[in-house]
Amino acid sequence: MIKAMLHRCLDNGTLSEQEAELLMGEIMHGRLADSQIASFMTLLRFRGETTDELVGFARAMRGMAEPFPVQLERTIDTCGTGGDGLGTFNISTATAIVLGSMNIPVTKHGNRSVSSKTGSADVFEALHIDIQTSVTEAATMLTEQSLCFMFAPLYHPSMKHVMKTRKELGFRSIFNLLGPLTNPAGAKHQLVGVNSRATADQFGHVLQRLGTTHSVIVSGADGLDECAIHGETYLVDVKEDTIDAITIKPEDVGFTCGSLASIRVQTPAESAALIHQVLLNEAPQEAIDIVAFNAGVALYAGDYVSSIHVGIEEAKRTIANGQSQLYLTSLQSKKRGIKHA
Which residues form the Glycosyl transferase family 3 N-terminal domain (predicted)? Predict the structure, then answer.
């Protein structure tokens, strides 16, 4: 049956939601050869994934994830797809820290870099914040300090069956797309960055079918998978019963249009250093503004504010008054001596 599905895909056919869930389950159980997994990943990269397939794949991975014992109301995840190739610092990680400093519960799902320069796990380590925690300890971190990092390999151990192939291929794949769709804590509020408007539209329907309460999918200028400070951002606002799309320019929300040059980095250490500068309110203005922009949209997605404009003002104030930097310092002081992978 699995071979028949793969052959159908090779002939430009597609899978139903149920077939996609079955196929991903077989992959996650280690029942496909590396060559089959590579063919599957490459085929989807060129053909593209249907909405039914994404929903099925996500359901399979959600069903096999390690259960998370704490469910806090209006928990937010800021995990994006990554791999946009633009080399910016890890904006979603900075955004998560700003939200945590406002006592907003954040279950930040992420991994090491596979298809980009700085994965969120790499940057958390460079910031001297522990990422290797047990599920129990992560739950404690969430309740005590509002933010826990959910290191994907710990919560999706079945991903071990694809990691070798994924690293060898090195390109943005179906598993980039599945990261934001498989938060182990089941976050019902999300800020999701993707690299195209078409993917943003598709994710809106996927997240709605998966049961989101309120999420916003964003795609910035030049394929940036964040709210952009250098051009337009396309936003898909998803609630249980509605999906709305708008386009926002930086000037529309009180920012000056800037450039990507001052927010590009080469290494996790450079990314961490720029995040430090942002939280100290001493970074280039584009860096501060892009974090405030994304944090403001996340606050709106979490239903903590009535509009994106109000959220941005709240995030600006939190960065400017030093609250986020103090919070980062407190996270660093609570290292638990856990050995990193």
Answer: 5-62
**Burial degree of 341 (CB within 10 A; 0-12, 13-18, 19+):** exposed
* Range list for CATH 3.40.1030.10 in the chain: 76-333
176 labeled part of a ligand binding site: no
Q: Is 134 annotated as a binding residue?
A: no
12 is in an annotated binding site: no
Is 115 a known ligand-binding residue?
yes
Helix axes 308-320, 91-101, angle to 10 degrees: 80
Check pLDDT > 90 for residue 26.
yes
Residue 306 marked in a binding site: no
Q: Any binding-site annotation on 333?
A: no
120 annotated among ligand-binding-site residues: yes
Q: Check the annotation: does 48 bind a ligand.
A: no
CATH 1.20.970.10 occupies which residues in the chain?
A: 2-64
Q: What is the CATH number of domain 76-333?
A: 3.40.1030.10
Tens-digit pLDDT profile for residues 136-172:
999 999 999 999 999 988 999 998 999 889 888 888 7
For residues 281-307, one letter each, b for 16 or more C-beta atoms within 10 angstroms of the residue's C-beta and e for the rest, the string is eebbebbbbbbbbbbbbbbbbbebbee
Does pTM top 0.85 for this prediction?
yes
Residue bearing the bigger pLDDT, 253 or 164: 253
For residue 264, give the DSSP letter. B
Residue 111 is labelled as binding a ligand: yes
Confidence of residue 340 (pLDDT cuts 50, 70, 90): very low
For residue 238, say whether it is annotated as part of any ligand binding site: no
From residue 222, how far is each of 194, 207, 232, 260, 332 by CA, in Å? 11, 24, 9, 10, 34
Q: What is the DSSP letter of 217?
A: E
Of 2.60.120.430, 2.60.40.3080, 2.160.20.10, 1.20.970.10, which CATH number belongs to 2-64? Answer: 1.20.970.10
Kindly indicate the confidence band of residue 116, based on its pLDDT and cuts at 50, 70 and 90.
Answer: low
Residue 101 annotated as lining a ligand binding site: no
pLDDT digits (tens, 9 = 90+) for 58-109: 999 999 999 999 989 999 999 999 878 899 999 999 999 999 999 999 999 9
